[in-house]
């Protein structure tokens, strides 16, 4: 679990709810017509920004904002250096069946065992990265649709509330509910966009960037093995992507 996401979400909601309670409770801030307009309207309007399968699948991708990448770059480098030493000593066939941290690494290693040259290796693995980015961008596009559409739905609800209010000025009892719709839809739209989905989109984009960097490091290491470079050179090339403290830790090891 990514504690930053969880604590941030709970903290933001807690501050907002706390302000509501201190002002007299959350009851005045709950309005069914406003909820239908903003939450329901945004859900369905966002649905036709992408194919149905992609849209429904994006909810699973949203959950990843609370699940940090489990792939460790320092562990990747350590394992790559070990495999480079094995390949240099015993040849590429000795890499057959070696344990590696993830499927992408395994696919590239198997290509080396099967005799793929450096150009083919790099070309195919880069295509894998490109395909991954396309998938992630499709899911993130659905998240962005919520950010863009929710405030607009809030504005639509505000206009609906104003029309209802102005059309019933002679009836004082109708002004209150209409004003509630006008104001609360704007509140709901801002809440959905800025509290729920905008931070989530940023976190997902950061996780994608991390995954791309990780996979590029895998390619760098496998290219070094294909060229029969020394394990030390491979480590130095891969470690260039790490912070200085982690580089120093690897050097000490």
Provide the descriptors you would attach to this structure in a database record.
253 residues; mainly alpha; 2 domains; elongated
Tell me what the structure shows:
- By secondary structure, the chain is mainly alpha-helical.
- It folds into 2 domains: 1-28; 31-253, no CATH class.
- It contains 9 helices and no strands.
- The chain has helices at 3-22, 32-47, 52-63, 73-90, 103-113, 118-167, 172-226, 231-239, 244-252.
- Helix 3 crosses helix 6 (118-167) and helix 4 runs antiparallel to helix 8.
Write the layout of secondary structure elements.
Layout: H1 3-22, H2 32-47, H3 52-63, H4 73-90, H5 103-113, H6 118-167, H7 172-226, H8 231-239, H9 244-252
Q: Into which percent range does the helicity of residues fall?
A: over 70%
pLDDT averaged residue by residue: 91
- Give the overall shape: elongated
Which stretches are low in confidence, meaning pLDDT under 50 for 5 or more residues running?
A: none
Number of helices: 9
For the biggest sheet, the summary is: none
Straight-line distance between termini: 29 Å
- The fraction of residues in strands falls at under 5%
Number of strands: 0
Overall radius of gyration = 26 Å
Structural class: mainly alpha
Q: Can you write the helix and strand succession as a string?
A: HHHHHHHHH
Q: How many structural domains are formed by the residues?
A: 2
Give a brief description:
With 253 residues, the protein is mainly α.
